[in-house]
User: Fold these one by one.
Assistant:
Number 1:
Amino acid sequence: MRHVGNRVARPEGPAKVEGRAVYVDDIPRAKDEWVGGTLRSPVAHGKLRCIERGDFDFSRVVVVTAEDIPGDNVQALIVDDQPILCADTVRHVEEPIALVAAPDQGTLCAALDALEPRIDPLEPVFDAERSQDVQSEISIDKGDVDATFEGATRIVEGEYHTDSQEQLYIETQGMIADPPTADGTITVRGSLQCPHYVQKALRRAFAVPPEKARVVQCETGGGFGGKEDYPSVVACHAALLAHASGHRVRMVYDRNEDLLATPKRHPSRVRHRTVVADDGTLLAMDIDVLLDGGAYTTLSPVVLSRGVIHAAGAYRCDNIRIRGRVVGTNHVPYGAFRGFGAPQVCFAIERQMDRIAASLGIHPVVIRQRNMLRLGDRTATSQLLKESVGSEEVLRRILAHTGFDRHEWRKERSGNKRRGVGLSFFYHGAGFTGSGEEMLKGKVTVELDDDGCALVRAGSTEIGQGKNAMFTAIAADALGAEPDAITIVDPDTAAVPDSGPTVASRTCMIVGGCLDKACRTLADRVGGDPNTPFRERASAFVRGGGDAVATETYGSPPGLQWDQNAYRGDAYPVFGWAADVAEVEVDLTTFDVEIVRFVTCVDVGHAIQPQIVEGQIEGGTLQSIGWSHIEVMTAENGRFRQDRLATCIIPTSLDTPPIDVLLVEEPFSNGPFGAKGVGELPMDGGAPAIASAIEDAIGVHVTHVPATPERLLEAWLEAHPDDAFFEAKR
Amino acid sequence: MIQFRLNGEAVSVDAHPMARLLSVLRRDLRLTGTKEGCGEGECGACSVVVDGKVVNSCLIPMSQIDGTEVLTIEGSGHANIQDHFLAEGGTQCGICTPGMIMATRAFLEDAEATGAAIDEDSVRAALAGNLCRCTGYGKIVAAVLAAARTEGDA
Ligand code: FES
Ligand code: FES
């Protein structure tokens, strides 16, 4: 291994630092290019009666409504409940009702202003607890929970809430669509994570076969899940306008539209009832998970699935009952965001573990050591942990680094600024849930050219996470070549196979694994003396008429079993393990929380590109830190209040502590060079570690993130009802 | 006509005095290295250097640009900073990077001129107007500190 484990330059790096990288809105404007916009609903629920046309010469523009859609008016994803354009019932604020394309921005705005949707309002539902509309329901049952509760002497109960969160990629959503060519091919290019998802959506909207819907990824300015499903919406809209107008159409959202209309993290409520022995051993866990799915199903069943599977945390318990529900409301649909249901339930279980520790008077570390999943244990779905279990090692390393096990947690502290330290311990399944990968059958093709260079064709996208450098390192070492002999082909559905979506921490482990195998196949075919440079050998092989193309399709490791009905078995090929320690300072006058220090220890299997892995961990951790106390995202009458960057706050460099990253490498036999997924894991543990540190500092049990000053004051007053100073401030 | 120097060259543009510098750079002059993340002065993706100071070009009307010296990512003189952003892992998705690099350039030149301290805290303060959602800032701060150490060697 010469490149795996050592730094390979990002192939796209120079263009990024020199400002030459071409993001969608950097594509030069074509001469006859038009601009597209969306007419949206001002109300959360109602019957669309008509769209009135006001005083404007509509011959100057093109207007598209539901009946102009050539194929199905369905935003193809999991369930066919979401229309591309509302035809009948409006279910959320900002729902698309009509599209307009115009020669320029001024004309577009005038036309949109002249269109007035007439909607008869219906009663909206915003409270998930009261919703009757179950989008998906999942249960896990292990052992005998009821019997354990019957004889129980010690039951700890808790209820935890998490609010929504905005992905806040710095590049907003955007697509450029070309009008159909003579043979009917539609092309869209844009900012996206999953070209083949977009292709699937276009196929349905236009009723065309895959080769007639071409999707090209531009350089993409961040995704974090936010560009998993929504780009399909923008792509369908832009393509419909291009189709109707005969012009190339550009649709790039401004920040306001992006914040108001696009999906965010599912808000959650999780209830825990836990039977514990006097020494802290978990005897039974009864967990109820509720997610607000918003107005349409989108990806919610899959988010719930990951949430339910992770709800019992990285702990061993023989008796577990988990009930999960995601319900429909009239909120803007919630969707994919790094972590995908796991951060919500991780917050809840980690807070519950602290609550159990406090109730028994034992240290947070001890309760975790007593119950953590280890090699040979079984998870909530009864998955046997056979290998690559870094649980003990991540905890050992982080304790050695921070000394948290010697810290007197929740000791009474004094002064106006109070410091506290908190811990979280967690795991995250890498890859798709259950038989997902088996069904996806992701593919990678590697092709050698006359010069002995390798072209890597995969549908996986570079969204900043370092896919290009990571694939280059894997291909170089698997072929025995130098990185300059490797070219990663940019995702374009006309040029790359479907490798499955760039989500779920699967690009390195699953797609990288296929790449590794394809390259080894080629290296075997090329053969020759390894002391001769690969390019020379490969060039001779290709010129000699050798078979220069290898395609690898993912197959699950042997022995994986998953029962989708019972929700039992091998939920994931493998898990990543991690522990975080946060130190905070809480100002008792303002209830501002400052993060003083943050340490995270992560088992990544093997770091293909250590610097990139650290970058993923630092960035994901900061998103979790932001969610814990800074990033507020709330809706009023179904409309997000935080509709601009002035109000939608994320951490700046000044809000960010130094983040120490410790890597543990417990290799996974089925991952490339032992690697397993790392993208999402860092999002899970920051919020509970910080909540725990706040609890340590000021003695209040934080059960709701973000832990804003308002919420902390509230909790403080509850704990100190006769604190006259704060009573007066209220 | 508004006349100014752009990356060392004299330019004159026929722009409305209230047109945003960002739009003129990106649309009229086709310099798309400067990015738009919010259009309201909050994200710093549009940072350029005007007369030695870093500004949000989305907030600057062209009337203020007449007679100034404007530097963008397409100009020269920041290769050292760019190299360190690459070496330290200071760019991920890259959308914040041009703005970060221009803010860094203004900061380092100012520190050189005034003799102000260049350390972790001053770097974090200098970049506080530039949001990055990918990196967690640590590797960006490391890149700036490394660039500061080698500035002048390049
Ligand atoms: S685009 Fe100028 S500060 Fe965000
Ligand atoms: S590198 Fe993506 S926003 Fe900074």
Note: The longest helix of chain A spans residues 507-526.
Number 2:
Amino acid sequence: MEKVDYSKYAVVMKGITKRFPGVLANDHVDLFVKKGEIHAIVGENGAGKTTLMSQLYGLIRPDEGKIYINGVEKQIRNPNDAIEAKIGMVHQHFMLVDRLSVVENIVLGQEPVKGPFFDLGRARKEIRELSKKFGLLVDPDAIIEDLPVGMQQRVEIIKVLYRGAEILILDEPTAVLTPQETNELFEILKNLQKQGRTIILITHKLNEVMAITESVTVMRLGKVTGVVKTAETNPNQLANMMVGREVLLTVEKEKAHPGEEILQVKNLVVKENRGIEAVKGLSLSVKKGEIVGIAGVAGNGQTELTEAITGLRRVESGKIIFKGEDITNYSPKRRREMGMGHIPEDRLKHGLIKLFPVYYNFILGEHDNSKFSDGIFLKIEEIKRFSEELVKRFDVRPPKIDLLGMNLSGGNQQKVIVAREIAFNPMLMVVSQPTRGLDVGAIEFIHKTLISMRDKGIGILLVSMELEEIFSLSDRILAIYEGRIMGETTPDKTTPEEVGLMMAGHKLEDIRQEA
Amino acid sequence: MNIKKYLLNEKVIISLFSVLISLVIAAIVMIVIGKNPLVAYAALFYGAFGTKEAIIDNIMKASPLILTGLAVGFGFRAGLFNIGANGQVIIGALLSAYVGTLVGAYPFFLSIPLVMIAGMLGGAAWAAIAGWLKAYRGAHEVITTIMLNYVATFIANYVVNGPFQAPGGVPKSPSIAYSAQFPNIMSVGATSLSTIIFVSLAAIVVIYVIIQRTTIGYEVKAVGFNPYAAEYGGISIGKNVVLAMAISGALAGLAGTTQVVGVYGRYFGALSGSMGFDGITIALIGQNDPIGIALAAFLISSIRTGSNQMQIAGVPKDLVVIIQGIIIFLVAANRIIKTIRIRKRKEAEA
Ligand SMILES: Nc1ncnc2c1ncn2[C@@H]1O[C@H](COP(=O)(O)OP(=O)(O)OP(=O)(O)O)[C@@H](O)[C@H]1O
Ligand SMILES: [Mg+2]
């Protein structure tokens, strides 16, 4: 047997195989991560990226394969073993306790004590030092639920560093970040790298891969399909390796032919959870057969706006008119029955019932429709048939309709939601972050689907934090800032810079006057 | 149903493990107090299954426990903790007894359904109060159902000592009409096996079907698993909270009714015993699954029925309370067992 020297690698995973009932999630995967590099793992939804990292972090155990840390074989049976091996992980969905402060969250599980007492003072000091060293500024005494997502993520990173991690795993860290926050995160990562840390980054955004990584491992259907140096590749080639075919990274669409107005929002005022006004007298309209894009930085009232339109949040004042009918006080059910579909921003909160099988999730909202229920009994056979069809049409992987929602990969959960909402044949679709966490192939597919819905005369209100998505899909663009619309334009008459200025709180007419 | 799949289900394994471990722990306790556990368990088993009388007694104890177990379990499905099954049992029994005294002129095929409907409606309405308070006033059902238990007890005490008291000064209601009583299948000595067991068995099937096959079951589970997603899907949370409480209460009310129509022939003060609270135990052990609940109800009734014989064999009867307590603890703390199992597997691998 050959004896290879792995000592220049921080992490070597060799021949990792992991089976779930009916799914081969990792099939003899090899991963080599050099000390001190930023290494990207990319691949389609369900390719097995999270599964692979969960094994490195000891959350699950491989069926086969070996793991070497700094050249030494290690048994990682649980996260404690991983922490001991100086490995830390920031998960796809954060794992912080909302009601506790930053320090409390960071020391959780390793509480420093002084005699019988909890010694937060020392922890606070250590955290300040860590923050300063890596440029991770955050107030140690802030309560988690008051912090924006980007800050919460910093807390997760500090938590990992506090436990002494030399190797950091980040699973889709930028999916929930604003571009600004993403840039800040990258500064932090580069800083960490300078201080000798090794970083493994899972992402679907190929420009991020190009921007900060040294090498890339590409996965597809549980196998490694390529290992390349970032400097020797490009986004198109990566996309190709991931999906196994040519992918259009830009959207092709004809000119829209808008019809009559289907949705009107008039002087809408909506409050957020803490009782502060989040939407402040906002008006907009959507016509049949057009896509209206709302551009904005997260937290400027988009969530409250879409929840109010779809009936999940109470309206303080103003009106919502749908198909000429005032629906301001209608229940979500009634709005659905009138033909309003909704792809929600937070898929695990609103969009999916994790403990329901996929085929139950496919009928959420239509479960009492005569197609799926005779009034008392569910038509299980019919539901399953319908689900098999959707799984095929939307390429949900694995194509098993009785898998529980929680056992699907993040991107495939999203596909289930999008498929369901599109299958209802709505007349208006309120779409929030439709491609968050999706791979390039799936994004291409969802974009094409949205355009073809538009061409069938469906009105679409699209909320996205991705400017690129707004530009490539929208027929009209509205920019939102602090609950107000800063201006309206069309993609051919504006630039990302101009929209960016509006998103930062400048009115369109002011911008154009100055120019 | 695929039996093998059912048996290999993680939940089933957890419950079985919990029962086994609790029996082992109780055995250790017996050894510590100087008793022979094998003798004690043999007596327990003989007491529960050894004679015809024992088996009948066992079935009659299990019958209402199945219903209260289903009641609590159904509540859990909607994310509701119905601690008020006892109160619902009382109101259901009271109402069915009252209607039972009125239907003497009707043939049994009218009077029996009337009495049962009355009992179920009574329990349903009583529980729906807590459901409504939760859905539209935000009052937690644990608090309100406990309070409603007291109210039910006091109402029952009042009526069977006053307006609805049988002559003779004892706190019990007049006897219900003969046409409203369920016939016995057989009697051995003083113990009779009543046809009410079929009511419980039917309830298992009905609840299983509601949970697995109906739109109502779908909505209730959706609300229980993820109320936000349910609301998003157009499912009214308020409506389903009230409905789930009502169905839960109807089952508890039915438990009370069966005691009136099949055991005592009337309402009397201590009829409900602790069956409402036992329902919580049973729902936990049965993991909210109708079939699991039926098995759990028989488990509890068996160790209770057998405990007298165990006492005769010289082992304190109270040990069954310990056994029951440990089972609940273990089921609730199923993580402990999961961890043990994972360790085992790892050791086997290593
Ligand atoms: N507990 C589980 N039970 C069954 N299947 C599972 C389980 N966890 C993951 N899987 C399956 O394993 C495969 C790999 O999932 P994984 O989460 O690793 O994908 P991923 O590459 O991280 O995808 P994404 O980009 O969508 O997050 C998927 O098909 C998924 O459905
Ligand atoms: Mg993943």
Note: The radius of gyration of chain A is 24 Å.
Number 3:
Amino acid sequence: MNLTLRVWRQKGPQDKGRMVSYQVTDVSPDMSFLEMLDMLNERLTLEGEEPVAFDHDCREGICGACSMVINGTAHGPQKLTTTCQLHMRTFSDGDTIDIEPWRAKAFPVIKDLVVNRGAFDKIIQAGGFISAPTGSAPEAHSTPVPKADADEAFDAATCIACGACVAACPNGSGMLFTAAKITHLGLLPQGQPERDSRVVNMLAAHDEAGFGGCTNAGECTAVCPKGIPLTTIGRLNRDFIKASGKR
Amino acid sequence: MAVTGVLLVLFLVVHMLGNLKIFVGAAAFDHYAHWLRDLGSPLLPHTWYLWIQRAVLTFAVVGHIWAATSLALRAKAARPVKYAHRAKVQGSYAARTMRWGGVIILLFVIYHILDLTTGNLNPVADKAHPYANVVADFAPGRWYVTLFYTLAILSIGFHLRHGIFSALRTLGQQTEKGQRRNRAIALGVAVVLCAGYLSVPFAVLTGLVS
Ligand code: HEM
Ligand code: SF4
Ligand code: FES
């Protein structure tokens, strides 16, 4: 396959940045999207040009590092798929593909397609934890969890903190990520002691970081590679109303 | 957003039911308008109830607009650099048009009050007989008024479809099953209110009400 890429190039946080076109030839349909970029980068390196910087780590859809808006959609056209798991067969020969970084004030661009997602860490530090004595693992049956709750908590826990939800949100809101954590911990017995302070503090950290407010538009869940449902946001809201009533 | 929105939806339901009295006849409709002014009597003096309702609605509208404006400003600040290429993935037309739709509805409400409450823009403007005002409003010769009302009410329908869904979510609706019910309620209320409101101008236009 032969493709035209239009890639966001930005030398550093202060640089203004712009879209730059590249031709890539002989792309195998079996390549992953990142392998296709590796190929471009090898060529750029040989030509003495600066390669395109992008985040990646596991390349198997579990770490959440890869982060690209491909043709206007976070993680590209395939549902429930991270950029690293997207294959070139989803495109056609002759296509033009636009590649941009996550766009959010809370995720400033470091270089090219790499953004700083430290704002998510701030949200986690504010309440995305439980207090438990460390040491040997407790007996599994000492705290029974209803199967339905365990399943729903687990589904929410599959969030890999990639930030696609923020990238896709018309409000630049990080509510789906925050709600996934609230749901994951709030459904389990171990999450109960901090349940009220968690939602209040995590939301404060979310707003503090410069994310926008949620209007339930639903773009987040449509691009989420882990299919975190919009209902988690209802859980967050309900926890917040309860916690506010108690203060 | 959700709390003020719920107040406004309740008003829309009651107002629609009141409007439908037009199908009962001129006397019933005019009597209804007079009754509104003496609602709560003898406890409340003449038109007091109406003024209380106007105060509550004004509070709700101002609160609603204030919340929407601060959300819009936050959204603008949260994405200082725009995307060069932006696809609509979820693509809910209703969700995307909430902000401009809201502005259109506000302009409509201002026009509507000048038309049927104060009478400034009404060809008859007979305060004692609102039936005559409505009939004059939607006469076939004034098709542009009917067209504007229709467009405004359709925007209200879209606004409600996403607005009701979103309000229930904000108030803590949190299960998959509830979400299906939630979407059905939002669509149902939007369709019923649209049909109810549109029936009046079209009944006048077609001569069913004259
Ligand atoms: C085509 C459908 C409609 C008709 C025929 C209609 C008719 C009327 C009439 C006759 C009045 C005056 C009632 C009186 O003074 O006793 C009125 C008042 C009012 N209408 Fe409508 N209406 C319609 C749709 C709407 C919609 C969709 C909205 C809201 C977005 C709305 C908002 C209002 C408000 C706020 C007032 C009260 C103003 C006040 O008394 O302070 N109307 N309408
Ligand atoms: S909710 Fe989904 S899109 Fe958002 S950070 Fe988690 S995995 Fe990524
Ligand atoms: S590189 Fe780890 S999820 Fe894509």
Note: The longest helix of chain B spans residues 48-78.
Number 4:
Amino acid sequence: MYTNIRWRKFGKYLVKDKMASIGIAIIMVTIITAIFAPLLAPYNPNEASDTATRLAMPFTSGHILGTDSQGRDILSRLIYGSRTSILSATIPVIISGVISIILGIVAGFSKKIGGFIMRIMDVLFAFPSVLLAVVIAAILGPGLFNVCLAMVIVRIPYMTRVVYTDTVQEMQKEYIEAASAFGRTKFEIMFKELLPNVLPSLIVYATTLMGVTVVTIAGLSFIGLGIQPPTADWGLMASNGKNVLVQGDPYVTLFPGLAILILAVAFSMLGDWLRDLLDPTKK
Amino acid sequence: MTEPLLEVKNLTKIYGQKKNLLRSGNQVLAVNNVSFTVNKGETFGIVGESGSGKTTIGRMIMQLVNHTNGDILYKGQKYSEFTKESAERFKSKVQIIFQDSGSAFNPRKTIGSQIAYPLLKKIKDRKAVLDEVIKFIEMVGLSKEMAYRYPHELSGGQRQRAGIARALILKPELLVLDEPVSALDVSVKSQIINLLENLQKKYNLTYIFIAHNLDLVAYFCDRIAVMYHGEIKEVGSTKQIYQFPHNPITKKLLSSILTLDGRYKVSN
Ligand SMILES: Nc1ncnc2c1ncn2[C@@H]1O[C@H](COP(=O)(O)OP(=O)(O)OP(=O)(O)O)[C@@H](O)[C@H]1O
Ligand SMILES: [Mg+2]
């Protein structure tokens, strides 16, 4: 009676929705790969092996996906690169999600504080998010941590707006008035009544944002503001490959590019599925 | 029916903010200089068309919104002079049943947990609370499985019963019934009215019954106030209102009831 989670619904939905199963499978595989990278990778990702040739074609001389311009094994670099990708996709979105849910609910609940919070958000909104990310990353300097911090700052206004809009809408409903009539405190109304009603759409939005973030961070690494060489990172790998792309060697860019794309799509599939799962009126 | 339980004196409510340099000022005069008393044990009806300010009066009695002007007295004590303890005590003594049962419950929490939380504030023993919740759920005519359901899994009538259980669990003295049956089917309507009557006897409750027409009011209420555009146009016993209406608004409301079945309290 005191819990709201419905696990039976969870299982039922997973079987029904094939796309979602594929999305979740891809994300799970990426996470497992990231954790067990040292066991899975056939070569050291950052060093050319003794026998390596540069820019080896796939399936030649023991390199399934070939080697890059420095003779490093592309498959091994992809496996290690999943680490930064999965971390930089999820952690910043989760952190900005937590901050945004508090800001959004407080703003939607209290008109006075709300006006103040939302004006600050509007200022951040005025800049295109990619541009803002580039500027912040440039100011903070390169590196995984700084890129993640930039992503947190960039996402907060968007996520706060989602929570704020939902909260304002929920505040109109009678159950909020009922809650205060039956003795709920302001804090309880915000975090026990409103939170479960505004969280689902934020989770859906956040999941989709994770996909976008994979691409954005890869893009920042690509232009040199993100993760620094020689770290194995998908965006960085694609960046290195661009030099040899025109020379007729597409694989160096193709494989990391595909990996970024597939992970981004997997997150958006997961988002669609969560939307249905978290709707209480659907069974 | 002697001492007044609730007194309302010159009550006024203006929604919105005053016009100033920054705001255009869209004020609504929802309730205008309203006075009435509600005696212990009676059912006091407030009738008026949509937007006439009935819910607003209910909200002010419940202290869900502040009043702009005037006084409300509960057992002779002014709301504005409530101490912290008396405000706390008052909150459990006056409860409300909401107009729209569909949105009066949080859609993401079970019915049982929502009936339970007013009580959980007073009693920490969860088992005792659960027993009490089941007792009240069964008392309003629901089966105890309903406690584990979500609001959308109940019918409108069942939700309204759950609303009654939630309002009664703290054993109130005064219940504000904001159009408790106007969204329900005719057959369900009379079941709920019967339930409310039985509970009134059992717990010696005082009701403020809000309605938008005189249909059920005649049967259910001892005294009636007729509202129009935020003002009370006429107050009197049900008999007076029905047999000797003074105000044109009352007459209009009366003429809109096509079938008077004569069951109203005037006849007995
Ligand atoms: N929160 C609010 N802010 C501004 N105006 C409001 C607010 N609530 C109600 N009003 C206005 O106050 C007036 C009275 O509303 P109220 O809800 O009390 O009417 P009612 O008699 O309960 O109507 P109904 O039968 O439709 O429920 C209406 O004109 C309404 O638009
Ligand atoms: Mg109303």
Note: Chain B touches chain A through 31 residues (CB under 8 Å).
